[in-house]
Amino acid sequence: MAIKLGIGVITYNRKETVRQCVEALRTFTQHPFELVVADDGSHDGTPSLLERLHVPYITGDNRGIAWNRNRAIWWLKEEKQCDVILVFEDDCRPCVFGWEKQWIEAVEAYGHMNHMPEITLEIDNDVSSGTGTAADPYIAPMHQAYCVGYHARALDFVGYLEVRFEKYGEEHVEHTHRFLRAGYGGLPQFRTPERGQVFFLRGGLETLPSESHGTPECVHRNVELHRQIQHEPLYRAPWRSDEQMFLFREEMEAALNRPTPTTQPSDNGFDAVVSLGGSEKISHYLEQVFGETGSRLFDGFMAPFHSLITLFETDFRDLFSTNCLYGYHDALRCRDSLIVYHNCLDIPPGERASVELFHSQLGRLKQEYQNYLAQLDQLCDGTQRVLFVRDWQETLHYEGSHRPSHTRVPDFKRLVDAIAARYPTLEFRVLFTNYGAASAADARMIFANSQAPDQCDEARKAQAWADMISQLGVYRHSDGSWDK
């Protein structure tokens, strides 16, 4: 049975920070997931922002971290029936594509999991063992709440955070101790959970500097409360009285009754798929997966990444520049732009690509590719949702130390901005394939790698592409179904 993943973000008066967190979650999360933001009574416009971002949210009066975290946990566990629940503080976010795989594995195995940020490892390292992975988590006698994982079955026994804690301080520590007492998320000391060793994961997330809303006085009161209640029964409801129960229920019902957005930015369906080149095989792989591609513009030439950006920024002005052409394997290459013309020339049998042949066909080439460009412009007029695909293979054309350094480093954001500038009304994503660990916190970008070695037969490469697209859940709307 497929695991249902739920991700919550808790926030208070940090509108820009929560926006960045949501964008990173949508960019770097591969597994399908339910998303919710629990807003603890912000007055900086956070709810309005979430509506513009089409993010489900729960809000109410400012009642502190325990109550607010319970909002997110309840929503994902009870309303959305999620199996694995991950709750982020808004100043923590993913930075590696597929980050959630380790978290799902760890929460499935241990029932409860915490994140160990790099700054903690550098400054306050009290790790006794482990490597910070799901198979071998860090073990340490500390508590961090940047990102916390809960399994629904563990929550059935442990329950929610203790709402007697005011505002800030100790709420996560006490909750973690109850998980340890129940046998989840660490090496427990059943009678003295405060001495327990907690499990942590390391990678895939980053934390941002932020200001705390807590005070030393509040923390001191909560520490004393924790001491008083530490031996009470394990399970806690997210309320302590009938009045609190009705209030909590009203918040949930208000969120459930909020209109569902008609447009979901996380939708992986597209009306058209367009190859941006990088490899002459890309269009072939895309056609095998999607049945067709939306434009043939980039099939006749290979434009290195920096030249592709320049083409979009200059209205494709120098696409067929005649400056400094020279033979390049079975094709021609422009020394200025490094564009390789490999499939656009009509080469008579027995002849090879030559500068003379290029000049003789230049008029036809300009007219033909002007038509291709017009077709692409029509496709991107804002009435359709478009997925552009760019592969890493252009790096093979940068061999040699004589190439300027800027031509070898892909500027992902500049390319995406150039596409957006040319097509300002277009809703689009750019799928960057096989760039290894490259990533960017930009919701317009998707990063993925096909699991095939560089040297293998074409059938294996094509299957690896099909598997990659399937794992991303990307499909073409006109197909009416998910692609196989």
Q: Which helices and strands appear, and what pairs or packs with what?
A:
Layout (H helix, E strand, L loop, with lengths): L4 E7 L3 H14 L4 E7 L6 H7 L4 E3 L5 H15 L4 E6 L2 E3 L5 H11 L1 E4 L2 H6 L14 E3 L6 E5 H7 L12 H11 L4 E2 L9 E5 L3 E3 L8 H14 L12 H16 L11 E2 L1 E4 L6 H9 L10 E2 L2 H9 L11 E4 L2 E4 L5 E2 L13 H6 L1 H18 L5 E7 L20 H11 L4 E7 L11 E4 L9 H15 L2 E2 L8
Parallel strand pairs: 1-2, 1-4, 2-3, 6-10, 12-21, 13-18, 18-19, 19-20
Antiparallel strand pairs: 4-8, 5-11, 6-8, 7-10, 9-10, 14-17, 15-16, 16-17
Helix pairs in contact: 10-15, 11-14
Describe the overall structure.
- It is a single chain.
- With 484 residues, the protein is an alpha/beta fold.
- It folds into 2 domains: 5-257, Spore Coat Polysaccharide Biosynthesis Protein SpsA, Chain A (Alpha-Beta Complex), CATH 3.90.550.10; 269-479, no CATH class.
- The chain is built from 15 helices and 21 strands.
- It has helices at residues 15-28, 46-52, 65-79, 100-110, 118-123, 152-158, 171-181, 216-229, 242-257, 282-290, 305-313, 355-360, 362-379, 412-422, 458-472, and strands at 5-11, 33-39, 57-59, 84-89, 92-94, 112-115, 138-140, 147-151, 186-187, 197-201, 205-207, 269-270, 272-275, 301-302, 325-328, 331-334, 340-341, 385-391, 427-433, 445-448, 475-476.
- Strands 1, 2, 3, 4, 6, 7, 8, 9 and 10 form a 9-stranded mixed sheet that branches. A 4-stranded parallel sheet has the order 13-18-19-20, sandwiched between helices. Strands 14-17-16-15 form a 4-stranded antiparallel sheet, with no helix packed on it.
- Helix 11 (305-313) runs parallel beside helix 14 (412-422).
- The two termini are 19 Å apart.
